[in-house]
Amino acid sequence: MSRTLLLLTTGVALTTGVAGAEVPRVATDIAPVHALAARVMAGVGQPDLIVAPGASPHAYALRPSEAAALQNADLVFWVGPDLTPWLADAVATLADGAEVHVLLGAAGSLTLPVRTGVLFEVHDHADDADHADHDDDHGDGDHEGEHDPHAWLSPQNGAAWLGEMAAQLSVADPANAAAYAANAAAGQAELAVLSDEITALLAPVRDKQFIVFHDAYQYFEHSFDLPATGAISLSDATAPSPARIAEIQGMIRAQEIACVLAEPQFNPGIVAAVLEGSTANTGEIDPMGADLTPGADLYPQVLRNMATRLADCLDG
């Protein structure tokens, strides 16, 4: 039985493009990538989202509907195994007939190494015992590659990925190539305007220092020249140790940190412990858009919300 007939007989509706051809089925890993694909496919079709909003991309159990989306996919767009190593086997097994595209290596993408050094490893390794404890606290846990995988937080990468998606969709669906190209170009123009907006918003607080919960924001910091001073947790997979919390408390006192940022996915009590005895402000930022409705608007809203909340926290 042909794939088209199978879809029809199981009651799955086919989305048709302007020329009446079957539109490719697209699966995406996380909500920000899904949003970019939805922007490119606007008016033509809708991509599927694999990792549910609010869930951690680093460890996830596929639901039947998400496994089916991979199995039915013609194209898969994902950040890559640096972010979701568990998804590699699922893609290979379930989407074995799909064209799979790792966005972290797409043309025009900025890639940054996993960050180490004094800003994010503040312990002075005074003795061997401390050093051993510190190494335990600093395991990557969730990042299996050498690149920082949180690359969607650079609008430069967002623009590059829009172009990559449009190019790949045009190959798979030439009848709608003009629509994909126009949508990608419009999305790239919107991101250019948003980048200028965020630059202006952050300009008044550029000389202030802040600490993030975990080191997920390097691409955003790089894009807007506003580096974080440190991170509370050096692994998404494990909570910071009491020694690490004490180190960050000392950093806040020594460097006059203005803001400590929490995330909705992590225990707020840890941030409260870090802030004990401090006058630093606190705010919450979300790199995934957990509280936003999936769709084309989610990606720019994630960046805008992050910038607004960071500016508010730094400004007090």
Describe this structure in words.
This protein has two domains: 15-110 and 149-195, Rossmann fold; 128-147 and 203-315, 3-Layer(aba) Sandwich (Rossmann fold), CATH 3.40.50.1980. Helix 2 packs across helix 6 and helix 9 (242-255) crosses helix 10. The strands form two sheets. Strands 2-1-3-4 form a four-stranded parallel sheet, with helices on both faces. The chain is of the alpha/beta class and 316 residues long. The chain has helices spanning 3-9, 31-40, 64-72, 87-94, 128-137, 155-172, 177-202, 218-224, 242-255, 268-275, 298-315, and strands spanning 26-28, 48-49, 75-78, 99-102, 210-214, 230-233, 259-262, 281-284.
How far do the termini sit from each other? 63 Å
Structural class: alpha/beta
Number of domains: 2
CATH class of the largest domain: Alpha Beta
Order of strands across the main sheet: 2-1-3-4
Question: What's the overall geometry?
Answer: globular
Number of distinct helices: 11
Mind summarizing the main beta sheet?
Answer: 4 strands, parallel
Taking all residues together, what is the mean pLDDT? 86
Radius of gyration over C-alpha positions, nearest whole angstrom:
21 Å
Q: Supply the CATH superfamily name of the largest domain.
A: Nitrogenase molybdenum iron protein domain
Question: In percent, how helical is the residue content?
Answer: 40-55%
Number of strands: 8
Q: Unreliable runs, pLDDT <50, ≥5 residues?
A: 1-20, 122-143
Which fold does the CATH topology of the largest domain refer to?
Rossmann fold
CATH architecture designation of the largest domain: 3-Layer(aba) Sandwich
Report strand %. Answer: 5-15%
Order of helices and strands: HEHEHEHEHHHEHEHEHEH
